[in-house]
Amino acid sequence: MSTFKDKVIIVTGASSGIGAGAAVHLASLGGFLVIVGRNVDKLKETADQIEAAGGAEPLQLLADMTNEPDVKKIVTSTLAKYGRIDVLVNNAGILETGSIENTSLEQYDRVMNTNVRAMYQLTMLATPELIKTKGNIVNVSSVCGIRAFPGVLAYNISKAAVDQFTACVALELASKGVRVNAVNPGVIVTDIHKRGGMDEEAYAKFLEHCKTTHALGRPGDVKEVAAAIAFLASDAASFSTGVTLPVDGGRHAMCPR
Ligand code: NAD
């Protein structure tokens, strides 16, 4: 229960899915959570889950990650309340479908601004604080960062960028005692695919198909990613930095034959 005792942990995109699951798990392990999202009611739901799991009342921050002043406010509000940052979980992200034949620059900008630029800005602003605490960063990437898939072009590029960002910043901050890692989930049951345009029927088929596209024969659960995030953020991973850790039921290791 005390892995993250007194640690101040920021989680973006904490109002749903992997971000909410990670926030609840990290709070249940003793952390003081700063949960960031755009929807007041959904953030409150995460806050209620945190308290139900025995965690301390989290700081709830409304921010659009593509709005620069909002991102600045995440750091200033966290420091105003807690005076420190120990862990940054860069989780907020969007998925859009589109191939080189039907994508658009607007789509490219939306996906890259949310999945990469916002992470770049928040990490840049949090870094001086993480250096003071010898803290660490966990970025939420995807199996799409390490393997190529057709039909989600901008998303794949964005997650490959997240992986390179992870490795480069890990090297830049290693001498300062700050670790930087990423998790690369396979298909995890959340709302992201439906938000990305799948209807219920297509989503049901997609999940069925996951039984063949993931070596372990199923899609993953939010809790399985939350556990990997907590591991990388904890002292148990004290000699790991620059890691991109698949949490994907073996999907990254598969090749069609
Ligand atoms: P989700 O849609 O439930 O979570 C994404 C969160 O990011 C949401 O809370 C959303 O509101 C937030 N967000 C998006 N744009 C934002 C913005 N401009 N400002 C503030 N918040 C914003 O889906 P999820 O599956 O939990 O996704 C979390 C992360 O996991 C994403 O980075 C996603 O790419 C990654 N991921 C998900 C899967 C999967 O299969 N679910 C697989 C690999 C990677």
TrEMBL record:
Coiled coil: none annotated. The lineage of its organism: Eukaryota, Metazoa, Ecdysozoa, Arthropoda, Hexapoda. InterPro entries: KR_dom, NAD(P)-bd_dom_sf, Sc_DH/Rdtase_CS, SDR_fam. Gene3D superfamilies: NAD(P)-binding Rossmann-like Domain. It comes from Drosophila willistoni (Fruit fly). GO terms for biological process: lipid metabolic process. This is Ketoreductase domain-containing protein. Residues 7-186 form the Ketoreductase domain. Keywords: Oxidoreductase.
